[in-house]
Amino acid sequence: MQKISSAAFADTKPHYVLLDGLRGVAALMVIWYHIFEGFATSPIDQGFNHGYLAVDFFFILSGFVIGYAYDDRWKTMTTKDFFKRRLIRLHPMVVMGAVLGAVTFYIQGCEKWDGSKVSLSMLMVALLINLFLIPAAPGSGAEVRGNGEMYPLNGPSWSLFFEYIGNILYALFIRRLSTKALMVLVLVAGIGLASFAIFNFSDYGHLGVGWTLADHNLIGGFLRLLFSFSVGILMSRTFKPVRVRGAFWICSLSIVVLLSIPHIGGEEALWMNGIYDSLCTIVIFPILVYLGASGSTSDKKPSKICKFLGDISYPLYMVHYPFMYLFYAWLWSEELTFSQTWPITLVLFFGNILLAYLCLKLYDEPLRKWLSKLFLMKR
Predict the structure, then answer these.
(1) Does residue 191 have a pLDDT over 50?
(2) Cα 252 vs. chain centroid, distance in angstroms?
(3) 229 — phi, psi (to 5°)?
(4) Does residue 306 carry a pLDDT above 70?
(5) Cα–Cα distance between 23 and 283 in angstroms, integer?
(6) Which domain holds residue 373?
């Protein structure tokens, strides 16, 4: 019996280190988006406004990387192998995020946003379904915060729900499509996504949907996944690098600007913000991924920055929000403004980066290494 490590299927393809760095930049922007969420009364007046589009960027990156890494492995890899690898890569941090969410909810007093109490047994039910990525129905007992989230202990887990669906679709269906058929799928999904955004099916005037089962969120979440994940896979098949100097800095600055720009159009012209969201997701983000994949760096410092940002990006995304719940509860109970709390926001920002790094080194990497040795083996 020969045991194979987590790198068993590793090949000689180059690693896209700049894409790792860009994923980290987008994850940092998500933190600031969620911080400013606490000071907003609606999606329209939020100062740091378009951070929700980072999820679409993540989906494109995921599709690109998965297509690049796995498209040519199916002769030697089974569907079961693929699923095991993806679960080992993704699920440890799903578990950590859920546990941190349960702990912070308990610290908060097991209270819904309306002040009503939640029993410890119901908190355990909410934890159990979050651990297995089972979404909570709005208004159900397991929806313990009372604001309709699919995963009320760790809101961002909703995107992992769709990420898992994307992986399943890829393994069972999308990978079998010809490039032309995949182009058709991307075109149809893009039209559907743009229509959803421009005609305001979200009722929010933006594409920040998928986090709840209420209204049209589930449809919107599927459209976001189907276009972004599929276009990423398509790009991995057709990618031909171009010569780009300073690709990381150009793309990073673009991501910062695109994700922080204020709401466009206001209440009277929500379609304008829908157009902006559509252009970012359908046109600009694929270009940025293309440029990031084309770029390279021979300097040690930028490479180290990209590696660090890439390493912490997923843990940061999965562990930061439980502490946002505590932050929001404090803000709203004391009716505080940003000018009164900016030192705490800096502590929250850098504290989450430190927490993500500790989770990576002390939990995620050791656990994934152990699980790979346990489950990824050939006889």
Answers:
(1) yes
(2) 17
(3) -65, -40
(4) yes
(5) 18
(6) 2-378
Give the whole-angstrom CA distance, residue 24 versus residue 18: 10
State how far the Cα of 167 lies from the Cα of 86, in Å rounded to an integer.
8
Q: How many domains does the chain have?
A: 1
Provide the 3-class DSSP secondary structure of residue 111. strand
Provide the pLDDT for residue 13: 67
Our measurement of the distance from residue 345's CA atom to the centroid of its chain's CA atoms, rounded to an integer in Å, reads 21
Residue type, 192: G
Closest C-alpha to 273, from 30, 45, 35: 45
Give the Å distances, CA to CA, from 6 to 79, 89, 114, 298, 373: 16, 10, 46, 27, 7
Cα–Cα distance for residue pair 3/149, rounded to 1 Å? 41
**Rounded Cα distance, 60 and 232, in Å:** 5
Report the half-sphere exposure of 23 (CA within 13 A, side-chain side): 24
Tell me the CB-side half-sphere exposure of residue 340, using CA atoms within 13 A.
Answer: 9
Tokens 């933190």 label which residue? 31
pLDDT tens digits along 211-232: 999 999 999 999 999 999 999 9
Q: Which pLDDT tens digit goes with each residue over 309-355?
A: 999 999 999 999 999 999 999 999 999 999 999 999 999 999 999 99
Pair of tokens at residue 254: 């673009």
H or E element, residue 378: strand 377-378
pLDDT of 158 above 50: yes
